[in-house]
């Protein structure tokens, strides 16, 4: 059986390099190319060498369209503006598309979801197995516990992360809201400063920390009078996200078009 041909977008970045390593570790997959922005100084360099491996004989380019034309599946951890354009290419070519970009606006998210009408699209705020189990557990706890339990979500990431709260924190918030049967937009509280008044019953709060090289820590707190339940996941290295994304990429083989999540991939 031929190995799945995987292309990587944002190949010179931290996640791109982790993805190259993850694909080389995986059975049944091979890296056939990666791209980054025009003018990136790493264009033309071997992907293996860039990723701390032996040379792979595959170099970084800036030709997105050519990569979509050659790959069975594309993995995208870039920025929202680029992801929107990449989603349109995926729809036009029918190439399977795995999306880990966070911080998309509602309009950008609609474009990515629409691509699922013509291609297999797997999208997740976080591709870690542990995180996706935490999301499932968060929803279940929110279903069981009434609003005498206040829900707070705390996340911390490295100093370079540009969006807040993290996509994973928002996914946890959506899971908690779904468990409660409410719309997250109606109950979320993303910032407290000054005299804010008492906490609103039924609200879902978010707190954000940034610093160092933290790959990603998330804690969901269910706090009632005299007791507290905490679900925590701590990522030691972004390679766990890359491995999950490669797992999702392998899952796309033979699937019909549609917009899927890691909950679908992991049958959660």
Overall radius of gyration: 19 Å
Within the largest sheet, what's the order of strands?
3-2-1-4-5-6-12
Q: What is the count of β-strands? A: 12
What general outline do the C-alpha atoms trace? elongated
Task: Give me the strand/helix succession.
Answer: EHEHEHEHEHEHEHHEEEEHEH
Portion of residues in beta strands equals: 15-25%
Which regions contain 5 or more consecutive residues with pLDDT less than 50? none
Report, as a whole number of angstroms, the end-to-end distance. 28 Å
Q: Give the number of helices.
A: 10
Supply the CATH class of the largest domain: Alpha Beta
Number of domains: 2
Give the averaged pLDDT, no decimals.
96
Computed structural class:
alpha/beta
- The CATH superfamily of the largest domain is identified as NAD(P)-binding Rossmann-like Domain
Helix content: 25-40%
- The third-level CATH topology of the largest domain is Rossmann fold
Q: How can the largest sheet be summarized? A: 7 strands, parallel
CATH A-level architecture of the largest domain: 3-Layer(aba) Sandwich
């Amino acid at each position: 059986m031929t190995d799945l041909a995987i292309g990587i977008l944002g190949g010179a970045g931290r996640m791109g390099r982790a993805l190259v390593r993850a694909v080389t570790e995986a059975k049944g997959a091979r890296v056939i190319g990666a791209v980054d922005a025009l003018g990136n100084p790493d264009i033309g360099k071997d992907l293996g060498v860039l990723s701390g491996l032996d040379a792979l004989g595959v170099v970084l380019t800036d030709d997105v369209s050519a990569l979509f034309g050659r790959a069975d599946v594309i993995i995208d951890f870039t920025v929202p503006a680029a992801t929107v354009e990449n989603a349109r290419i995926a729809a036009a070519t029918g190439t399977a598309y795995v999306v880990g970009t966070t911080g998309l606006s509602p309009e950008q998210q609609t474009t990515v979801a629409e691509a699922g009408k013509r291609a297999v699209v797997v999208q997740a705020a976080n591709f870690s197995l542990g995180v996706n189990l935490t999301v499932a557990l968060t929803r279940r706890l929110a279903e069981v516990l009434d609003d005498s339990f206040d829900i707070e979500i705390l996340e911390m990431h490295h100093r370079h992360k540009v969006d807040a709260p993290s996509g994973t924190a928002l996914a946890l918030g959506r899971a908690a809201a779904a468990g409660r049967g409410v719309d997250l937009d109606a109950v979320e509280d993303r910032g407290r400063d000054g005299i804010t008044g008492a906490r609103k019953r039924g609200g879902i709060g978010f707190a954000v920390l940034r610093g160092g090289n933290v790959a990603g820590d998330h804690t969901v707190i269910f706090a009632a009078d005299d007791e507290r339940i905490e679900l925590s996941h701590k990522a030691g290295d972004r390679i766990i996200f890359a491995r999950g994304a490669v797992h999702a990429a392998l899952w796309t083989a033979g699937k019909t078009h549609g917009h899927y999540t890691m909950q679908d991939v992991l049958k959660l």
